[in-house]
Design a protein that fits this description.
about 220 residues, mainly alpha, 2 domains, 9 helices, Arc Repressor Mutant, subunit A, Rna Polymerase Sigma Factor, Chain: A
Protein backbone atom coordinates (compact mmCIF):
# COMPACT_ATOMS: atom_id res chain seq x y z
CA UNK A 1 0.00 0.00 0.00
CA UNK A 2 2.82 2.40 0.86
CA UNK A 3 4.55 1.62 -2.40
CA UNK A 4 1.39 2.35 -4.35
CA UNK A 5 0.87 5.59 -2.45
CA UNK A 6 4.44 6.68 -3.25
CA UNK A 7 3.92 5.85 -6.94
CA UNK A 8 0.72 7.90 -6.99
CA UNK A 9 2.54 10.82 -5.37
CA UNK A 10 5.31 10.64 -7.97
CA UNK A 11 2.74 10.55 -10.78
CA UNK A 12 0.92 13.58 -9.38
CA UNK A 13 4.17 15.52 -8.97
CA UNK A 14 5.08 14.74 -12.59
CA UNK A 15 1.64 15.84 -13.82
CA UNK A 16 1.86 19.10 -11.86
CA UNK A 17 5.41 19.76 -13.07
CA UNK A 18 4.46 19.20 -16.73
CA UNK A 19 1.40 21.42 -16.34
CA UNK A 20 3.42 24.28 -14.85
CA UNK A 21 6.63 24.04 -16.88
CA UNK A 22 5.57 22.31 -20.13
CA UNK A 23 1.99 23.61 -20.50
CA UNK A 24 0.65 20.03 -20.56
CA UNK A 25 -2.65 21.02 -19.02
CA UNK A 26 -4.75 18.28 -20.60
CA UNK A 27 -2.97 15.58 -18.59
CA UNK A 28 -3.77 17.56 -15.43
CA UNK A 29 -7.42 17.78 -16.46
CA UNK A 30 -7.67 14.08 -17.25
CA UNK A 31 -6.07 13.06 -13.97
CA UNK A 32 -8.37 15.12 -11.72
CA UNK A 33 -11.46 15.36 -13.96
CA UNK A 34 -13.48 12.59 -12.26
CA UNK A 35 -12.18 13.42 -8.79
CA UNK A 36 -13.46 16.99 -8.92
CA UNK A 37 -16.81 15.78 -10.29
CA UNK A 38 -17.14 13.39 -7.34
CA UNK A 39 -16.21 16.08 -4.80
CA UNK A 40 -18.81 18.49 -6.22
CA UNK A 41 -21.53 15.84 -6.29
CA UNK A 42 -20.90 14.87 -2.67
CA UNK A 43 -20.78 18.52 -1.56
CA UNK A 44 -24.10 19.30 -3.19
CA UNK A 45 -25.70 16.19 -1.68
CA UNK A 46 -24.40 17.11 1.79
CA UNK A 47 -26.11 20.48 1.42
CA UNK A 48 -29.34 18.76 0.34
CA UNK A 49 -29.11 20.17 -3.18
CA UNK A 50 -30.09 17.86 -6.05
CA UNK A 51 -26.80 16.95 -7.82
CA UNK A 52 -27.89 17.82 -11.37
CA UNK A 53 -25.36 16.57 -13.91
CA UNK A 54 -25.23 19.82 -15.91
CA UNK A 55 -24.68 21.89 -12.75
CA UNK A 56 -21.90 19.60 -11.55
CA UNK A 57 -20.18 19.85 -14.93
CA UNK A 58 -20.47 23.64 -14.95
CA UNK A 59 -18.99 23.86 -11.44
CA UNK A 60 -16.19 21.53 -12.47
CA UNK A 61 -15.37 23.75 -15.45
CA UNK A 62 -15.31 26.81 -13.21
CA UNK A 63 -12.97 25.10 -10.73
CA UNK A 64 -10.47 24.10 -13.42
CA UNK A 65 -10.58 27.57 -14.95
CA UNK A 66 -9.89 28.97 -11.50
CA UNK A 67 -6.88 26.65 -11.19
CA UNK A 68 -5.46 27.25 -14.66
CA UNK A 69 -6.02 30.92 -15.38
CA UNK A 70 -3.63 33.77 -14.57
CA UNK A 71 -0.68 31.61 -15.57
CA UNK A 72 -1.66 28.80 -13.16
CA UNK A 73 -1.47 31.13 -10.17
CA UNK A 74 -3.29 28.74 -7.82
CA UNK A 75 -1.23 25.74 -8.93
CA UNK A 76 1.96 27.63 -8.19
CA UNK A 77 0.62 28.22 -4.68
CA UNK A 78 0.74 24.49 -3.83
CA UNK A 79 3.20 23.87 -0.99
CA UNK A 80 4.17 20.24 -0.43
CA UNK A 81 5.86 21.13 2.88
CA UNK A 82 2.44 21.78 4.46
CA UNK A 83 1.71 18.06 4.37
CA UNK A 84 -1.16 17.88 1.89
CA UNK A 85 -0.87 15.77 -1.24
CA UNK A 86 -1.72 17.41 -4.54
CA UNK A 87 -4.88 15.29 -4.66
CA UNK A 88 -5.87 16.42 -1.15
CA UNK A 89 -5.15 20.03 -2.04
CA UNK A 90 -7.35 19.81 -5.17
CA UNK A 91 -10.16 18.32 -3.06
CA UNK A 92 -9.81 21.20 -0.57
CA UNK A 93 -9.95 23.83 -3.33
CA UNK A 94 -12.97 22.16 -4.95
CA UNK A 95 -14.84 21.99 -1.65
CA UNK A 96 -14.12 25.63 -0.85
CA UNK A 97 -15.13 26.73 -4.32
CA UNK A 98 -18.47 24.93 -4.12
CA UNK A 99 -19.10 26.36 -0.64
CA UNK A 100 -18.53 29.88 -1.97
CA UNK A 101 -20.80 29.27 -4.96
CA UNK A 102 -23.56 27.94 -2.72
CA UNK A 103 -23.40 31.17 -0.72
CA UNK A 104 -23.68 33.17 -3.91
CA UNK A 105 -27.03 34.79 -4.66
CA UNK A 106 -26.71 33.64 -8.27
CA UNK A 107 -26.24 29.92 -7.69
CA UNK A 108 -29.71 29.18 -9.05
CA UNK A 109 -28.67 30.47 -12.49
CA UNK A 110 -25.58 28.29 -12.60
CA UNK A 111 -26.48 25.99 -15.51
CA UNK A 112 -25.20 26.93 -18.95
CA UNK A 113 -26.54 23.86 -20.68
CA UNK A 114 -27.44 25.80 -23.85
CA UNK A 115 -23.74 26.62 -24.33
CA UNK A 116 -22.60 23.00 -24.36
CA UNK A 117 -20.62 21.84 -27.38
CA UNK A 118 -19.58 18.29 -28.16
CA UNK A 119 -16.38 17.13 -29.84
CA UNK A 120 -18.56 15.87 -32.70
CA UNK A 121 -19.47 19.47 -33.61
CA UNK A 122 -15.88 20.22 -34.54
CA UNK A 123 -16.65 18.58 -37.88
CA UNK A 124 -19.23 21.27 -38.62
CA UNK A 125 -16.51 23.92 -38.25
CA UNK A 126 -14.42 22.28 -40.98
CA UNK A 127 -16.36 23.08 -44.15
CA UNK A 128 -16.34 20.92 -47.25
CA UNK A 129 -14.24 18.06 -45.97
CA UNK A 130 -16.94 15.58 -44.97
CA UNK A 131 -15.72 12.14 -46.09
CA UNK A 132 -18.14 10.20 -48.24
CA UNK A 133 -19.06 6.61 -47.51
CA UNK A 134 -19.86 4.17 -50.28
CA UNK A 135 -23.13 5.18 -51.99
CA UNK A 136 -23.69 1.57 -53.01
CA UNK A 137 -24.87 0.79 -49.48
CA UNK A 138 -28.68 1.10 -49.60
CA UNK A 139 -29.02 1.40 -45.80
CA UNK A 140 -28.79 5.13 -45.18
CA UNK A 141 -28.79 4.80 -41.39
CA UNK A 142 -25.84 2.40 -41.44
CA UNK A 143 -24.03 4.60 -43.95
CA UNK A 144 -24.49 7.62 -41.71
CA UNK A 145 -23.24 5.67 -38.68
CA UNK A 146 -20.14 4.56 -40.55
CA UNK A 147 -19.52 8.14 -41.66
CA UNK A 148 -19.72 9.42 -38.07
CA UNK A 149 -17.33 6.71 -36.89
CA UNK A 150 -14.90 7.67 -39.63
CA UNK A 151 -15.11 11.34 -38.68
CA UNK A 152 -14.52 10.57 -35.01
CA UNK A 153 -11.52 8.40 -35.82
CA UNK A 154 -10.00 11.04 -38.09
CA UNK A 155 -10.41 13.78 -35.48
CA UNK A 156 -9.04 11.69 -32.61
CA UNK A 157 -6.00 10.56 -34.60
CA UNK A 158 -5.08 13.89 -36.16
CA UNK A 159 -5.71 16.16 -33.18
CA UNK A 160 -2.78 14.37 -31.52
CA UNK A 161 -0.52 15.66 -34.30
CA UNK A 162 -1.18 19.31 -33.46
CA UNK A 163 0.97 21.46 -31.21
CA UNK A 164 0.03 21.46 -27.53
CA UNK A 165 -1.62 24.91 -27.68
CA UNK A 166 -3.85 24.04 -30.62
CA UNK A 167 -4.73 20.67 -29.13
CA UNK A 168 -5.72 22.20 -25.80
CA UNK A 169 -7.80 24.97 -27.39
CA UNK A 170 -9.81 22.43 -29.38
CA UNK A 171 -10.09 20.00 -26.49
CA UNK A 172 -11.21 22.61 -23.96
CA UNK A 173 -13.82 24.07 -26.30
CA UNK A 174 -15.19 21.01 -28.09
CA UNK A 175 -14.50 18.13 -25.71
CA UNK A 176 -14.56 19.67 -22.23
CA UNK A 177 -17.53 21.87 -23.06
CA UNK A 178 -16.12 25.20 -21.89
CA UNK A 179 -17.75 28.32 -23.33
CA UNK A 180 -15.80 30.84 -25.43
CA UNK A 181 -15.65 33.16 -22.45
CA UNK A 182 -14.38 30.42 -20.12
CA UNK A 183 -11.76 29.28 -22.63
CA UNK A 184 -10.56 32.85 -23.16
CA UNK A 185 -10.18 33.27 -19.41
CA UNK A 186 -8.40 29.94 -19.07
CA UNK A 187 -5.89 30.83 -21.80
CA UNK A 188 -5.63 34.41 -20.55
CA UNK A 189 -6.85 35.85 -23.88
CA UNK A 190 -9.43 38.35 -25.03
CA UNK A 191 -12.49 36.56 -26.47
CA UNK A 192 -11.70 37.84 -29.96
CA UNK A 193 -8.15 36.50 -29.75
CA UNK A 194 -9.44 33.13 -28.55
CA UNK A 195 -11.86 32.97 -31.49
CA UNK A 196 -8.96 33.64 -33.86
CA UNK A 197 -6.77 31.01 -32.18
CA UNK A 198 -9.59 28.46 -32.30
CA UNK A 199 -10.27 29.17 -35.96
CA UNK A 200 -6.59 28.71 -36.82
CA UNK A 201 -6.42 25.48 -34.80
CA UNK A 202 -9.47 24.14 -36.67
CA UNK A 203 -7.81 24.98 -40.00
CA UNK A 204 -4.62 23.20 -38.97
CA UNK A 205 -6.63 20.16 -37.88
CA UNK A 206 -8.51 20.24 -41.19
CA UNK A 207 -5.20 20.22 -43.07
CA UNK A 208 -3.95 17.23 -41.04
CA UNK A 209 -7.16 15.32 -41.72
CA UNK A 210 -7.07 16.02 -45.45
CA UNK A 211 -3.53 14.61 -45.51
CA UNK A 212 -4.64 11.46 -43.66
CA UNK A 213 -4.55 8.34 -45.92
CA UNK A 214 -7.91 7.17 -44.53
CA UNK A 215 -9.57 10.46 -45.49
CA UNK A 216 -8.05 10.34 -48.98
CA UNK A 217 -9.61 6.89 -49.51
CA UNK A 218 -13.10 8.15 -48.65
Amino acid sequence: MKKRSRENTLDENKILYECLFCCERDAFLQHYWRLVYKVIKEKLSMNQIPPIKEDIEDLRNEIFIDLLNKNHKKLWAYDESKGASIRGWIILIANRYVENRLRSKHYGSLSKRNDRISMDSIWGDMEEISPGVSKNNPKAALRKELELLTQKRLVERNIKKLKIRDREILTFYYDRGLSREDCAECFDMAIGNFDTAKSRAVKRLKKKIMEDPEYQKC
